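#structure-requests
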Amino acid sequence: MDEPVGQETSFGYPRPVEERVLLVEDDHSIRLIVAKGLQQSGFRVATEGDGRLGLIRFRQETFDALLLDVMLPSLNGFEICRQVRSDSFIPIIMLTARNETGDVVLGLEAGADDYLTKPFEIEELVARLRAALRRARLNDGQRLATVGPLEIDIEGFKVSKSGMPLTLTATEFKLLVEFVQNTGRVLTREMLLDAVWDYDYLGDSRIVDMAVKRLREKIEDDPAHPQLVQTVRGVGYRLEA
């Protein structure tokens, strides 16, 4: 269903409605609370309470971002994420009721850009959602950059390796650009969280590690023995020219 759009934010001033978000959450009360909070922050919201119906809805309509509960009837959030990510770069945020390492890793490996553990504050969800959308709209107006076999068109949102185009998600692209702009410099996980995900360090570096892992799978000849994105043990990562 499409929820009515809020005309005023929680801060008391109008905000133009731009992005459309699909929320797939089977808990009715959580669905209503989250939808209302997003509406008050200026988003248009469509909701579904069933995993399979949510995937069908996503395929039939156009959305700017996807919020997925992990535990859903008929089709869980991990599988929806994998299917969506197979042919879409749309920002995906996973919502999980459990703060277990397995759930977080599975969500990030499935291609999610971010995750939140319930219960969470609507303000934090809105902040992360807006950050994910900003990454998807990344256009720094900078020139072409070349690192080893990689050619990065930052303005055109394109990456090629040895002349062959690569397919990167918005988060992976932003992460690569951050490395390129700091070639040879060690970037800590805290620095990457702040620069790429647009929020301060929250005590969990797994989201950075999984994003680097996915990026390596696309840009390295041998991801198990990376030559471009090097791990600096105990510190972070460094891009070698």
